[in-house]
């Protein structure tokens, strides 16, 4: 009989509806926006607003957006995370021996759900669990939410496991190198006139006011990436995208406004990358072509220029991303396996 895996690695992300339909989107939004780490409003009042105002108003339009990015195999973000988990599993089997480490992925909301995955790992006999939320920059609404979901699932599964959460990896050298390489591969010229916008998901200002370190980690990540490119400060900036609700209450400046301004001053070629997203999702596959690129084009129309907008894909299931995540997990994994 084979020995049980010594360690489990669990990749976590926010999630996606189970299908691009209004009912599935409604179910997803209810779970996602009910999480106090995501929306910290008065719980009872917010529950009524969410159930009877927000979800009914958003489910049809959101489902239509999801339909535009859905694949025959399912949700892009889920498929890419599953591919990442398989690749990491194979990588660690090669490094540490077959069966010593098992890698799985789960979502905070939606499928694969974290409780089912925890129960699977429990059945396999895993006694040490490393949780890696695939958000390089930690935030209450992402990393903290993932940690809470895993903790709840472990409790519900009655699983006697030692669990550690890797809070962030924004200072990982391989992460900065991988983002920089993705830009170079897309044609970015560090020595030319190309502009670079590093766009991150916005977060509520109230989260920052209560100690969220997200903005500082975004800044550190951006500096590490542009240092890899040896890029002059005048050629790049940070923007934020995809606020929910009142835009004045979310972290700015907004990427949309930056892009329109760059187009208006005649920026000839703009590269747009989202270093905070592990894999392409609605915010990249839909929001960029439907909202952000058109903002740049509106600016170009004002200046009478054509301009060129280059959207750079997220690292996703690439070999470079597998190396990044392996480098993040490996040091602690070695310690656990050597105990």
From TrEMBL:
It catalyses: Fe-coproporphyrin III + 2 H(+) = coproporphyrin III + Fe(2+). Gene3D superfamilies: 3.40.50.1400. Pathway: Porphyrin-containing compound metabolism; protoheme biosynthesis. Its EC number is 4.99.1.9. One of its GO terms (molecular function) is metal ion binding. InterPro entries: Ferrochelatase, Ferrochelatase_AS, Ferrochelatase_C, Ferrochelatase_N. PROSITE patterns: FERROCHELATASE. It is found in: Cytoplasm. The keyword Iron applies. Belongs to the ferrochelatase family. This is Coproporphyrin III ferrochelatase. It comes from Candidatus Aveggerthella stercoripullorum. The gene is hemH.
